[in-house]
């Protein structure tokens, strides 16, 4: 019996250690017309992409030093985070709110060591998602914030932020930025909790709080790049206790974006007004069609593996397939 008790205790300790693994939050301030941003931001983002279990990222685009279209798509919330930190220069990097705050070029010299040192500190919160879905541009779900320690005396807020993981410069015809970057990463699109956060009241050991959210998605260039970053922050000290990045398109089957895109074909493409949509195995899906101005042209529930699109005017369209496995998009051209 003692041996069994020891084994169970060991398992519980291991589970607890896994649950308390810290994911460091990078908040990056950047600008699409800033030459130093093009030198410092991409290598930092490459590190984020290579270490998803250690670090999550949100990039705020600023109106300085040059005009930036991504800033003007949501200026209020970008301005609020600039004001919260008092960060009035770019490129500027902040790790876990108050652990590291400095020019991004300085961070590059010690990025791995800085992140590893911070990630080794046990967190006092865990964060998990629940039933996140994106259907017909309506994003819904909830995030659960669980206290792993007694945090009752701390001024804590939960944040849920929608970001676009990759935005092509070519998607912007006006003010795309004049630095050497060809795409931008983890662009902040929306604070689901509002930019001031959601005040946490369940902060004692083992207490938990679920925060629901809903949003009709705006300004996205590619819905497949939608990600959600959730974090807990002390508003008084600015310390971030824990962060997590969620991909709403991940499924239990482990299907990838490429596999889902390969699930359906649109032909002929280009065409002269009639396009056939054919799927390999899916026979129950929703089919949306958007024009180049992101306007929904049509939306149909389909219960077969072939579907005919008729009478489209000359132009370029995005055909969006929505299934229980996720969302896939294809571009079609009508001549």
Q: How would you explain this protein's 3D organization?
A:
20% of the residues lie in helices and 41% in strands. The chain is built from 7 helices and 19 strands. The chain has 335 residues and is an alpha+beta fold. The model is unreliable at 1-19 and 251-255 (pLDDT under 50). It has helices at 2-19, 35-50, 69-72, 75-85, 104-108, 111-119, 257-261, and strands at residues 24-30, 55-61, 92-95, 100-103, 125-135, 138-147, 156-168, 183-191, 198-199, 208-216, 226-234, 240-246, 264-267, 275-279, 285-291, 296-302, 306-309, 315-323, 326-334.
Blueprint of the fold:
Layout: H1 2-19, E1 24-30, H2 35-50, E2 55-61, H3 69-72, H4 75-85, E3 92-95, E4 100-103, H5 104-108, H6 111-119, E5 125-135, E6 138-147, E7 156-168, E8 183-191, E9 198-199, E10 208-216, E11 226-234, E12 240-246, H7 257-261, E13 264-267, E14 275-279, E15 285-291, E16 296-302, E17 306-309, E18 315-323, E19 326-334
Parallel strand pairs: 1-2
Antiparallel strand pairs: 1-3, 3-4, 5-6, 6-10, 7-8, 7-9, 7-11, 11-12, 13-14, 14-17, 15-16, 15-18, 18-19
């Amino acid at each position: 019996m003692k041996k069994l008790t020891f084994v169970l205790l060991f398992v519980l300790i291991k589970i607890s250690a896994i649950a308390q693994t810290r994911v460091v939050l990078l908040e990056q301030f950047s600008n699409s017309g800033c030459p130093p941003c093009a030198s410092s931001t991409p290598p930092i983002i490459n590190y984020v992409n290579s270490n998803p279990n250690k670090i999550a990222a949100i990039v705020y685009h600023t109106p300085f030093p040059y005009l930036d279209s991504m800033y003007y798509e949501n200026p209020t919330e970008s301005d609020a985070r600039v004001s919260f930190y008092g960060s009035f220069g770019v490129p500027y990097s902040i790790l876990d709110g108050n652990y590291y705050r400095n020019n991004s070029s300085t961070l590059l010299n010690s990025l791995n060591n800085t992140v590893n040192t911070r990630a080794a500190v046990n967190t006092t919160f865990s964060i998990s998602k629940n039933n996140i879905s994106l259907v017909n541009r309506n994003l819904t779900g909830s995030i659960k914030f669980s206290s792993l320690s007694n945090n009752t005396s701390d001024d804590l807020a939960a944040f849920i932020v929608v970001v676009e993981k990759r935005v092509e410069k070519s998607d912007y015809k006006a003010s795309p930025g004049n630095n050497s970057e060809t795409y931008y990463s983890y662009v902040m699109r929306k604070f689901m909790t509002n930019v001031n956060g959601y005040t946490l009241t369940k902060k004692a050991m083992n207490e938990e709080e679920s925060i629901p959210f809903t949003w009709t998605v705006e300004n996205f260039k590619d819905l497949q790049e939608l990600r959600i970053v959730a974090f807990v922050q002390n508003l008084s000290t600015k310390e971030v206790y824990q962060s997590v990045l969620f991909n709403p398109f991940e499924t239990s089957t482990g299907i990838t974006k490429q596999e889902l895109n390969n699930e359906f074909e649109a032909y002929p493409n280009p065409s002269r007004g009639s396009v056939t949509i054919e799927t390999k195995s899916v026979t129950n899906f929703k089919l949306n069609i958007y024009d180049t101005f992101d306007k929904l042209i049509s939306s149909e529930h389909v219960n077969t593996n072939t579907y005919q699109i008729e009478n489209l005017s000359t132009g370029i369209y995005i055909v969006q397939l929505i299934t229980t496995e996720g969302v896939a998009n294809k571009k079609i051209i009508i001549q």
